[in-house]
């Protein structure tokens, strides 16, 4: 899968799960369900049901980071798959959440690594490309 799409899907999934724990979830859910099913209207009830199940899990134990991570991972995969059918989906979802899409390139620019190799050690840094410093 395209890393850019995966990054956008992950950011959208995080926003989605965050919204589930808020009071305005019912309002947001209608908009999200509509977006997720716009290319497959017959899937709307199943999508709404899946959103409700995830929301009840997340809201049921708000302190569980494990449940939140699992929900983000599940919805990241779903959003990534749905974006194959609808190329504007992820951008539209970010519009609902009120945040600009976070791109992989934007996030990667914030990552730095500082390492020091002593006594003949080797430092490997892997990212956009591979770089070996000796």
Structure at a glance:
This protein is mostly helical.
Can you give the mean pLDDT?
A: 77
Structural class, from secondary structure content?
mainly alpha
Radius of gyration (CA) equals: 18 Å
Would you identify the regions where 5 or more consecutive residues have pLDDT less than 50?
A: 100-110
H/E element sequence: HHHHHHEE
Strand arrangement in the largest pleated sheet: 1-2
Measured by DSSP, the beta-strand proportion falls in 5-15%
What is the molecular shape? globular
- Number of H/I helices: 6
Q: What is the helical fraction, as a range of percent?
A: 55-70%
How many discrete domains? 1
Distance between the termini: 33 Å
The beta-strand count equals 2
Largest β-sheet summary:
2 strands, antiparallel
What does this structure look like?
- The protein is mostly helical and 134 residues long.
- The protein has one domain.
- Helices cover 61% and strands 6% of the residues.
- It is built from 6 helices and 2 strands.
- The chain has helices at 3-20, 25-36, 44-60, 65-85, 89-97, 104-108; strands spanning 123-126, 130-133.
- It has a two-stranded antiparallel sheet with strand order 1-2.
- Helix 1 (3-20) packs across helix 4.
- The longest helix has 21 residues, at 65-85.
- Residues 100-110 have low confidence and may be disordered.
Question: What labels describe this entry?
Answer:
134 residues; 6 helices; mainly alpha; 2 strands; two-stranded antiparallel sheet
Write the layout of secondary structure elements.
Elements: H1 3-20, H2 25-36, H3 44-60, H4 65-85, H5 89-97, H6 104-108, E1 123-126, E2 130-133
Antiparallel strand pairs: 1-2
Helix pairs in contact: 1-4, 1-5, 2-3, 2-5
């Amino acid at each position: 899968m395209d890393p850019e799409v995966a990054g956008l899907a992950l950011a959208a999934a995080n926003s989605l799960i965050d919204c589930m724990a808020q009071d305005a979830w019912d309002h947001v859910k209608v908009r999200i369900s509509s977006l997720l099913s716009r290319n497959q209207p017959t899937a709307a009830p199943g999508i709404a049901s899946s959103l409700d199940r995830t929301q009840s899990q997340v809201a049921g134990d708000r302190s569980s980071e494990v449940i939140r991570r699992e929900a983000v991972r599940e919805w990241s995969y779903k959003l990534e798959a749905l974006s194959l059918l609808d190329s504007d989906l992820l951008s539209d979802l970010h519009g609902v959440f009120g945040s600009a899409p976070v791109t992989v390139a934007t996030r990667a620019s914030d990552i730095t690594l500082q390492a020091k190799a002593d006594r003949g050690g080797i430092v490997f840094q892997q990212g956009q490309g591979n770089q070996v410093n000796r």
